[in-house]
Amino acid sequence: MSTQPRVDVKPCVTRSPIARALQYVVITPARNEEQFIRLTLDSMASQTRRPLRWVIVSDGSTDQTDVLVDQYRVRFEWIELVRMPAHRDRNFAAKVSCFNAGFESVSQLDFDVVCSLDADISFEPDYFAFLLKQFETHPRLGVVGTPFVERGVHYDYRFTNIEHVSGACQLFRRECFNEIGGYVPIKGGGIDWTAVTTARMKGWKTRTFLEKVCLHHRPMGSGSSRSQIRSSFRHGQKDYNLGGHPIWQLFRSAYQMTRPPYIVGGAALFAGYCYALASCRERPVSSELVRFNRMEQMSRLRKSLWRRAHANGDQARS
Question: What is the pTM of this model?
């Protein structure tokens, strides 16, 4: 009986195509930012991975903001300046209008990631390369960013968890940004928080990566004690508007009492929340988002209290 020659069949190996580098665009609403925008311009110009387009939307600036941007626009073809009409009022909803104008100008480009970047921050040359790498490594990441450092002080993540992404620089996967419907124009503030929290509610991962930081050059809350108290009161109102849980707000306010301006700052925060609650204000976010926010807050509070109780128990035993 003849025997057929043995044929060694190698297992079929399916090679996945090499993933292409993600392309990104950046949009920066800017209003009278001549004091700090050069720092942002220099940071973007030095990036090892530059954007397809960087649209700076001047929101009726009356200082030298537009002049400074024009100087860089001549040197870098990927920088674009869009001028919005001058107006007197300034609120967070106006920032969304500017962002949308910038987004419209890049809507026909083939990009994977869109970034909202403030005009008063700076960062290292590999900043965007690092954040884009996170998207390329983790397909379910919808929003990423880093902490900001202000006057040498790092942001405290005990009451703002690592899943929140600061509005100073937020990078969205384009699919995620489309799914959440973009930024919601809320006059009282919270547009950045609403976008990130809505992304998580819809199943996307969001993450602040502590390996990098950006420097925030316009100090927040650096005015007089009276202005800081007024700001805390407004912040308490915003916490109510965004659906913060009363118990969470109580603990948050107690924590703020330990920071300048001591006692009164935290008291003003809680008073603002209570004032908005008593006024029966209509919230600018959906009831679904309110429920999701409260669920997250109470889960984090329980974990925090459990960790503290566990640490106290360990100390007592030792």
Answer: 0.88
